[in-house]
Amino acid sequence: MEWLREETNKLKEQNLYRKRLLREGLKDFCSNDYLALRDHPEVIEEAIKTLREYGLGSGASALVSGYTKHHKDLEDILADFKGLPCCVLFGSGYLANLGAIHALAGEGDALFSDELNHASIIDACRLSRAKLFIYKHKDYEHLEELLKKVRKDYKGCFVVSDTVFSMDGDIAHIPTLKRLCEEYECLLYLDEAHATGVLGKSGMGGLEEFGEEWEEYLVLMGTLSKALGAYGAFVCGSEALCEYLVNRARSLIFSTSLPPAVCAGARRAVEILRREVWRVEKLRELSLRLYGELKGMGFEVYYNRTPILPLMVYEEKKAVELRDALLEKGILLQAIRYPTVQKNRARLRLTVSLRYSEEDLELLKDAMKSIAPPPNP
User: Torsion-angle region of residue 366: left (phi > 0), alpha (psi -120 to 50) or beta?
Assistant: First the structure.
């Protein structure tokens, strides 16, 4: 197995080597627990109660015996929260994209995917036997050029996009995507992993953010593992879509379902979000505040009305050095490098969470000042 060591050494030489870091003893500033719900007392209490009743695992796939009232209740509240007719649970966001896209798009169809879509979308598109077309990031003129040129040559058409792009935090323009899908008779598949609980006045996601209505050609995927603080994922759409996915999505059919306790805790997290909508606006205010402070220190940082604040470093080696310098100060802020982002687009990906206290923010501020770029002469 010498070749494995050789390949790993190449990663180290290119500053692309990764290792898992124990977060114990560190202050985490890069998790996706945006709304601080993962350890909310009500969420914990509900999960423990269900854990005692149902045990640790579900025991089987949803189509065998792993479908309980807690799974159904979570699907029902998620569909209602998103304002869509129906919802189906999956084991993770990766499994949801893999299962749904592969089930929907096949030979003789065309997939149009944003070049900065999440890796799970990229892999799902590759796994499907549909013809794949990549359009430039949020370049909807390019997308329309592709649609004009080739749409007529394919039976089915699917446009796939993140709603919030996970590495830059920018937002897809849903009204334009909807218009193009209506004009060219395409299904629109939106990955709302980082939009759920973040966009819109009440955190419903991209449709609420843009004041758009759901249409039957629109499919929404979302995760429980970001703003909702749990684990797993879901796909929402029409009743016909859900029925089809239950019968055709291999990652659902052939995977053990989510533990009932996780479903119960996630359902309570949705209930808290709907009751405490102030969390969404407070998150936006804190994101804007941190953006301003980091900008004032001289960092090149992006802000797109989401809690994802990438601090651009560009050089992979420099990103690793800055990460390690922060680790020495007890700060966990990961260096994001290729292939997660394009080469020479490395960054420290800071995420904002309501779990940060004022003491935490002071700790972060002091640490960031120590690595801030020198002022311009």
Answer: alpha
Q: What are phi and psi of 85, to 5 degrees?
A: -65, -30
For residue 354, CA distances in Å to 2, 41, 169, 223, 321 come to 46, 15, 17, 19, 28
Virtual torsion, Cα 271, 274, 275, 279, nearest 10 deg: 110
Note the pLDDT of residue 6: 87
Domain ranges across the chain: 21-39+277-371, 41-275
Cα–Cα distance for residue pair 124/95, rounded to 1 Å: 9
Q: Which helix (H) or strand (E) holds 106?
A: none
Q: Could you report the per-residue pLDDT of 205-242, keeping only the tens digit for each? A: 999 999 999 999 999 999 999 999 999 999 999 999 99
List C-alpha distances in Å: 46 to 52, 94, 271, 370. 10, 26, 12, 42
Q: What is the pTM of this model?
A: 0.95
The DSSP symbol for 213 reads P
Nearest CA-CA partner of 284 in 160, 178, 366, 200: 200
Give the bridge partners for 21, in sequence order. Answer: none
Q: Which fold has domain 21-39+277-371?
A: Aspartate Aminotransferase, domain 1 (3.90.1150)
- Name the stretches of the chain with pLDDT < 50: none
8 Å CB contact between 204 and 11: no
Report the C-alpha gap between 313 and 365 in whole angstroms: 18
Q: For the domain 41-275, what is the CATH code?
A: 3.40.640.10
